Amino acid sequence: MNNGAHLEKLRSLLTESRYKHTLGVADTAKRMAEKYAFPAEKAYTAGLLHDCAKCISIEQMLQLCSQAQIETDDDEKTSVQLMHAPAGAAMAMLEFGITDTEIINAIRYHTISRKGMTLIDKIIYISDCIEPNRQIDGVDKLRQIAQEDIDEAMLACLDTNITYVLTKKKILHPNSIYARNEIIRVLRQKKEC
């Protein structure tokens, strides 16, 4: 994976603040991958490309998804905030040459999450929430939890993001609910052991 070339291209696609956020997510993902025994370079690449489609129009997002044959639903199609993730997965494939399915899926689900989140999915979702440039209420606690238990961190980040969406009266994608319910079951099973 040629992350040097990716950096150049990303700088041209993103605003300065989005580029800074992207670097923060990539670095955080790399550190989390090292902690949780996942290939660090793979996590870094997914973090680097997670928002690659964030600054394009929704029409361009829809076109990318169509070209890459990435299905989207009505909730995603009506929200730039939700649509940039599948469009980012499409752009990663079509314009950055990414063929690794785990990286593509981590980008695809970094906003809404999903049932059956893989380790890299969790790493990118959490890294997006806790990267050093994030200034949200409770972020220091989220960062601490991420160092202790990835599933607890996943639940805490889901709760934070869902609360934000509800407060702002934005569309809450059902996948986020499915992911939250599943992670609660996982955590219950851990406690029973």
Structural summary, described in words:
Helix 8 (119-130) crosses helix 10 (150-167). The model has no long low-confidence stretch (mean pLDDT 96). This protein has helices at residues 3-13, 16-35, 40-49, 58-68, 74-77, 80-94, 101-108, 119-130, 139-146, 150-167, 174-192. By secondary structure, it is mainly alpha-helical.
| Class from helix and strand fractions | mainly alpha
Radius of gyration: 16 Å
Helix content: over 70%
SSE pattern, N- to C-terminal: HHHHHHHHHHH
Helix count, DSSP H or I runs of 4 or more residues: 11
End-to-end distance, in Å? 39 Å
Entry keywords:
globular, 193 residues
Topology overview:
Blueprint: H1 3-13, H2 16-35, H3 40-49, H4 58-68, H5 74-77, H6 80-94, H7 101-108, H8 119-130, H9 139-146, H10 150-167, H11 174-192
Give a short overview.
This protein has eleven helices and no strands. With 193 residues, it is an all-alpha fold. The longest helix is centred in the N-terminal third of the chain and has 20 residues, at 16-35.
